[in-house]
Design goal:
Elements: H1 7-15, E1 23-25, H2 31-46, E2 52-54, H3 62-69, H4 81-91, H5 103-112, H6 116-132, H7 136-150, H8 160-178, H9 185-212
Parallel strand pairs: 1-2
Length: 235
């Protein structure tokens, strides 16, 4: 038992079993459980536990698994909406060859027009270019995979306004950095990091906007069949 998902309870329990080489998290398979897994894994890694795995129940939690095994209706697993949408949007990012001379104007135009997909694509391609322009396309694919792997819902709590502000700050930092002309290798890597963070911020804002949109209700129109009016015959 972990007293919910409080890390202090987990760490205290582990201190009594210092011989453990592997930690398996058996938390709920819902939004909170998925967030807790990422958060606890990070905390455990920081405390020297590098081999941390997750065993997810096929239903919402382990009680639901027992119910299903005994023939009772069981609640299904609940995906983390932010994580699923972030992964979906990152997976849809397409490689656009970086044009260093146009990168500033491309980023600014995408930011101004709120075209967050293009925004992230330009930024990620720029990051790949500054890491290694000789294999830019392959590097783009690696960075896209890195975005997916590193995304953790528990670090993504801001609302739209906060994320807009964060994106604007990232844009300003990148614009300032791109004014440089001559660059050392170290400066190129720093530019790549800023552009990578910019892509991440753009996707996070896009995800928040997508999830904040009201769900349209689809009401099927029904054909109204009226009874025929009685026919009055006059003899």
């Amino acid at each position: 038992a972990m007293n919910g998902v409080y890390e202090n309870a987990v760490l205290a329990a582990l201190k009594n079993h210092s011989n453990l080489s592997e930690v398996i998290l058996c938390v709920d398979n819902d939004e909170g459980g998925i967030e807790a897994t990422d958060r606890l894994r990070d905390i455990l890694n920081e405390n020297g536990y590098s081999n941390v795995k997750r065993l997810a129940p096929p239903y919402k939690d382990w009680n639901e698994v027992l119910k299903a095994k005994n023939g009772a209706p069981a609640l299904p697993a609940v995906p983390n909406k932010h994580k699923e949408e972030y992964h979906r949007q990152v997976g849809n990012l397409q490689y656009l060859k970086c044009r260093p001379d146009k990168l500033t104007s491309q980023i600014y135009a995408a930011f101004k027009n709120e075209q967050y997909k293009y925004f992230a694509e330009y930024a990620l391609a720029g990051s790949a270019f500054f890491i290694d322009k000789s294999c830019e396309k392959d590097m783009f694919a690696k960075l896209r995979a890195k975005l997916k792997a590193e995304y953790k819902p528990y670090t993504d709590k801001g609302k739209i306004t906060a994320k807009q502000r964060n994106l604007q700050e990232c844009v300003m930092a990148v614009m300032k950095d791109l004014r440089q002309t001559a660059r050392t290798r170290e400066q190129c890597i720093n530019t790549a990091k800023l552009l990578y963070q910019l892509a991440d911020s753009a996707v996070r804002l896009s995800v928040e906007k997508t999830l904040s949109e009201p769900v349209a209700e689809h009401i099927e129109s029904e054909d109204i069949v009226s009874e025929p009016e009685p026919c009055m015959e006059f003899g």
